[in-house]
Every structure is written in C-alpha cells, then in structure tokens.
Design a protein that fits this description.
By secondary structure, the protein is of the alpha+beta class. The protein is about 30% helix and about 35% strand. It is built from 5 helices and 11 strands, in the order ββαβββαββαβααβββ.
Length: about 200
C-alpha cells in the first residue's frame, strides 16, 4: 500500500523496538523455517514468505488520507496521546491471520497480557479515525505482532491457514520471551513514518 490516486495509505500501530524487536525477528526466522517449505504430509504447500522488518501491534485497518489531511490527522493523534503512559506487553502463542482481501497471510505472535493497556491506546486511535471518517478497528480484535508475511505459491489462502499447524513447536519459544516495553505509537503513510512518544 502506498500512494493511490492522490491519497496515501495509512496504518497505525504500537512500535516494538530494541531487544524485543530482535527477539521477534528470531521468532520470524523460526516461523519461516517451519512453514515456508515443502513437506511430506498431506497438507504440504509451498509458501512464499518474508520476515517483517518492523514488527508492531496493529491499531487500525489500512486506510487512506489525502495529502493535505495528513498534518491535521497527526496533530489530532498527538493530542489524543497526551497523558498516555508507556506500557508492557507479554506474548503467548502463534496464530496465522489473513488480511481483509484474503490475498496475504501473517504469522503473528499473540499478545497474552497487557491487553488492557493496548485497548486504552486503541480507544484514542479510534476517536481520531472516526473524526476523519475512517473505520474503527475490529470490535473483536485479537492483538498481535505480525512477524512473517505469507502467501501460498498457488495463491490459495486456505492453504496458508492449514500450514499454521507447522507452528506448534515454536509456541514454547514464544512463552519464554521477556515482556516488551512499548513507548511509541507509529503512524505510516506510504514511505513516511511518524512517531509519537508515550509518557514515561
């Protein structure tokens, strides 16, 4: 997603940095080794994947803004984030999700604790989204940090879901990850990134 007909594709998330980012990269590499290969089982499928360089916890669906709207949107988002303290999240287990168009899948590390803090940030993001006429995030959202982007070589997303069974052995590794400190909201428009620091 990028620049489309005068509009910029946007996405907001909680950035994961430092050692937590490095650990999630290692988890992503383990996921790639587990599922992006052919096997002899009946559900084998060749998958194409890449470890995501900037893991984050998503707080919006993909949306579009016109160039002249971006400044006002960021000012509104910064105002909503005043007084919001940094938070800590812990991970537990892996899931595979598909996007709304069902043309891509994501191997993701699920947020197991710290969910209430993430939800408080989301409520403020949702208020800004509504003010600009954009959809709120999913009401039944399961917060997670995607670590690998996937697609089946034959384009079949159902095969991506079936391949999720190969991730079971990595779950124990996830449970041993230390908590991640989250201190930044990241907003991406095309190739431009904006950062809002949370209070210490």
């Amino acid at each position: 997603l990028g620049h489309v007909r005068g509009g910029w594709a946007g996405h907001i998330g909680l950035a994961i940095a430092g050692q937590s980012k490095q650990r999630l990269h290692a988890v992503g590499s383990a996921c790639m080794a587990a599922i992006c290969s052919r096997s002899d089982d009946g559900d084998s499928v060749e998958l194409v994947g890449e470890v995501l360089p900037e893991p984050h916890i998503s707080l919006t669906r993909a949306f579009y803004l016109q160039e002249h709207q971006i400044g006002g949107f960021m000012r509104a988002l910064e105002a909503e984030m005043r007084g919001v303290s940094e938070l800590s999240v812990g991970f537990g287990g892996l899931s595979v999700y598909t996007n709304e168009r069902r043309d891509r899948g994501f191997a993701s590390v699920d947020v197991a604790y710290g969910v209430d803090g993430v939800r408080q940030v989301l409520e403020r993001v949702d208020r800004v989204m509504e003010r600009f006429g954009k959809a709120r995030f999913f009401a039944d959202a399961r917060f997670h940090a995607s670590v690998v982007r996937l697609r089946a070589a034959d384009g079949g997303m159902c095969m991506v879901q079936r391949a999720a069974g190969r991730l079971g052995a990595i779950d124990e590794e996830i449970l041993r990850l230390p908590a991640a400190r989250i201190d930044t909201v990241e907003c991406v428009f095309g190739d431009r990134r904006f950062y809002i620091a949370l209070d210490r």
